Amino acid sequence: MKRIFALIVCLLLATVAFSQDNKGFFSRLRNSFIVHDTVYIFLNQNSNDSIVDEDDEEDDESDERSEGIPIPIDTLDTHDMFQKVVLFDNGTWLYYNIDRSFFSYTMDSDHWTTEQVHSYNDVALNDLPETVVLHLVDSLYGYCIPHPGPVTSQYKYRWKRAHKGVDIGLYTGDAIYAAFDGIVRAALPINMTGGYGNVLVIRHFNGLETYYGHLSRFIVKSGDIVKAGELIGYGGSTGRSTGPHLHFETRYMGQAFDPERIFDFESGTLRSEEFLLKKHYFSINSHYGQTDEQSLAASKKKPSDPQTPKAKQGKKVYYTVKKGDSLTKIAKKYGTTVSNICKLNGIRQNKALKVGQKLRVK
Questions:
Q1: CA gap 81, 77 in Å, rounded
Q2: What are the tens digits of pLDDT across the range 241-285?
Q3: Total-model pTM
Q4: 300 and 330 share a domain?
Q5: What is the CATH number of the domain that holds 349?
Q6: Domain of 353?
């Protein structure tokens, strides 16, 4: 009887432990290509403050079995928001601590909104400084490309809309990683985000925010502290999307700028450890690769400039044929001619019209 009671207690304790990972411990364990850059930083530094080994003898045995650096395959939360557990592909695990010095409690108080994608709607562009120095990485804080893949669409005007980020090609279910250390501000489903689909917004210690859109699902929640390279979700094609990809944005005080100014997505590297953000970078016409003079001149263009040639063509107008309509009647109604309607629709003037048929009239 005592053995049965002890077994029940052990099962209850195990259930509580696994419940820390409310997204599914075993489902996350199956992912085998998760890279945590900051873990490698801690390992290289041999910092006792950053990593606490449970059993030195076990680690020695593990090192003998491993031919190289163990690959992290998952990260689990603990009861302490500043401490996590890393699982490795060789069956070992260890704790690592998040440096509390990076965490400023103003990070989750200034314009902190969890129920909408954008939180700086009341901050105008004119209120921002001309330049801001953003410290991106140092000996403690790393970085990670959100997903290793080609940029399929850049920061620019696209289909008469401002595309305020870059699209990175992927397959549905591919892993998405946090770009820098930070706190998840928003983890929102499709019905709350419009074109973004399932989206995550992470606020970083330097004031930068990164957006991860069109996810098939995310495995973190608002308020979670994440490290650079930590698995945060999976790629997909939710929201306004023509196919699976990651829509990735970089914003400062709500204003978007070209993510390629920070990341070299082709090589998977950071362009510099420190980034000088200039106000004219916030223009949709300002891109990486331009000189400062070119960027400043481009930022002064009116938003409608790239659309001017198409705008001159006029908006297409269609009409649905009703009972009793004729080409003459329709032409008179829209101030055009029968021959013009026929030309636009590729029909003859003696063509019989059908109720419900759609005709282009302009």
A1: 7
A2: 989 999 999 999 999 999 999 999 989 999 999 999 999 999 999
A3: 0.62
A4: no
A5: 3.10.350.10
A6: 318-360
